[in-house]
Amino acid sequence: MATITPKKNISFVVHLLGWMMLCILLVLLSPLSWRMGEAEIPIEFWYKQVFLVGILVATFYNNVTFFVPKFLLKGKNYIYLLIVLGGAIVFYFAIVYFEQLIQYPRRMHEFFNPDRPFKPGRRWIQGDAFQILLYIVSVGLSTSVALVQKWQRDEANRQELEKQNINTELSYLKAQINPHFFFNTLNNIYSLTNLDIKKAQEALLKLSRMMRYVLYENQHESTLLSKEVDFIRDYIELMKMRLTDKVKLEIHLDEAKDNQVIAPMLILPFLENCFKHGISSQKESHIYIKLEIMGDTVFFETRNQIFPVNLDSPEARESGIGLTNTQRRLSLLYPKKHKLKFGKEEGKEEYYVNLTINLS
């Protein structure tokens, strides 16, 4: 069974009000401007007005629902023009026939000119021109309505297609990020097995908890910000297990409210870059990570040194994948609601990331 949506209800009300205004202008205002003493307007006049409104309504909706879609919108412009001209002729003679049927000319002549004899066959040219003008207005408005409806349908289809494309692209980007993350993390744990088996076991436990987050939360468009922050903590703790005393970490992570949501795994690629490029086994290094939550706004910042030896490794060359995909995800999920700046500090061998996201 067909359902009536609010949009359909609004459309129906608009049409109803439009025709009511036409009836008021056509049926009431003209008679009210006449000054004929106590003489009553002939009943034939009201019959004619009702017939005229009815034929205008039929013209309007037949044009909207049939003639414009079947001819004009399919490029058959000349055929449509002939139909409109033919409709004008049919419209005119239908009114003439109806007037003769109810003896409208005689009754109106007797009403306006009771002292003059009636001459059959004579037409009021101004009245005929006004009626043809009403026909033209009806056709013009209905054509405009049909074209606007076509444009709205095309726009709705375009937006739906764009939404589907965005969802498909986001799924593809997330699918790229996940293997990239696991590849890097498993490499870290593999390296750790050569140094400390117990730490490697602890790392596997943390990784399994992170995998559950990725497998379940990453399938949804959004997750709780508190879960994303917990995921970040787990990742940092996992990374700490392979760090030496030469690496100084400065971590500041705010607690998130339970009702705040964010797209999952947006921040991970920036963290990965910190630990890939900001660590050296020979030199002192410093990594700064800060996540601040103020109302519905999330501020994320990282700073780390850049070691050239890391930039030459195959893993480093692949690190751009996650960052590029994250930029694309941000542009799709938070258009005009995020600011992202990253790069090398001028005059310093230091890399920075500044990300602001409005979650409202």
UniProtKB/TrEMBL annotation:
Domain Signal transduction histidine kinase internal region: 169-246
SUPFAM superfamilies: ATPase domain of HSP90 chaperone/DNA topoisomerase II/histidine kinase
InterPro entries linked: Bact_2-comp_sensor_kinase, HATPase_C_sf, Sig_transdc_His_kin_internal
Gene3D superfamilies: Histidine kinase-like ATPase, C-terminal domain (3.30.565.10)
GO cellular component, one term: membrane
Tree of life domain: Bacteria
Keywords assigned: Kinase, Membrane, Transferase, Transmembrane, Transmembrane helix
Protein name: Histidine kinase
GO MF annotation terms: phosphorelay sensor kinase activity
Pfam families according to UniProt: His_kinase
Transmembrane feature ranges: 12-34, 46-66, 78-98, 129-148
